[in-house]
Design goal:
mainly alpha; 7 helices; flat
């Protein structure tokens, strides 16, 4: 999500002929990610308690070299911070529409419920399908993904999402053009 937001904000600044802000924020984010990753790897190599916490959280306690997990964690945290900074700087320069909060809330709620539904289907189907064949794993993932998408769409519909309505209208218009 953060990477998508960063791309959208960067393009908006480029469209407004203000390319210095995205360059500074993106370079700063890359440098901070690198520094944070280096420090994180060092910290996880030298301290056992945070390493054990990360290993148990990500369910990789018996895998050697788990200190390298600090790299994607550092990158993700840095990109989240850069995305929030982009949002704050963008809102100060170009203004802020309070309807964004409804969109963010709806998207978050739909995503959490969709992901929970997909996870529940994965857990349920794990006992029904063979886990050692391609077809079993593929079917399990396909059904869980479809259930997650259906729940996500249903929640956005229930929450009266403007974006979902726009997508529906676009699909309907496109299908009408194709059928003519």
């Amino acid at each position: 999500i953060a990477q998508s937001a960063i791309l959208i904000f960067s393009r908006a600044y480029y469209a407004a002929n203000a390319s210095l802000v995205p360059i500074v924020l993106n370079v700063g984010g890359a440098i901070s990610a690198g520094i944070l990753a280096y420090l994180g790897v060092f910290w996880l190599q030298t301290s056992s308690m945070p390493r054990f916490f990360i290993e148990s959280l990500l369910r990789v306690p018996d895998v050697p070299g788990t200190s390298v997990l600090a790299i994607p964690i550092a990158y993700s945290l840095s990109m989240l911070v850069v995305g929030v900074l982009f949002g704050v700087v963008f809102a100060r320069r170009f203004g802020f529409d309070p309807a964004v909060w409804h969109t963010l809330g709806s998207s978050f709620a739909a995503s959490v419920i969709g992901a929970t539904g997909a996870y529940a289907v994965l857990q349920f189907m794990a006992s029904l399908l063979p886990q050692d064949t391609f077809l079993g794993i593929f079917t399990e993932g396909l059904v869980a993904g479809l259930v997650g998408l259906a729940l996500w769409t249903a929640i956005l519909f229930i929450l009266n999402s403007t974006e979902l309505k726009e997508i529906k209208n676009l699909v309907v218009r496109t299908l009408k053009k194709v059928s003519q």
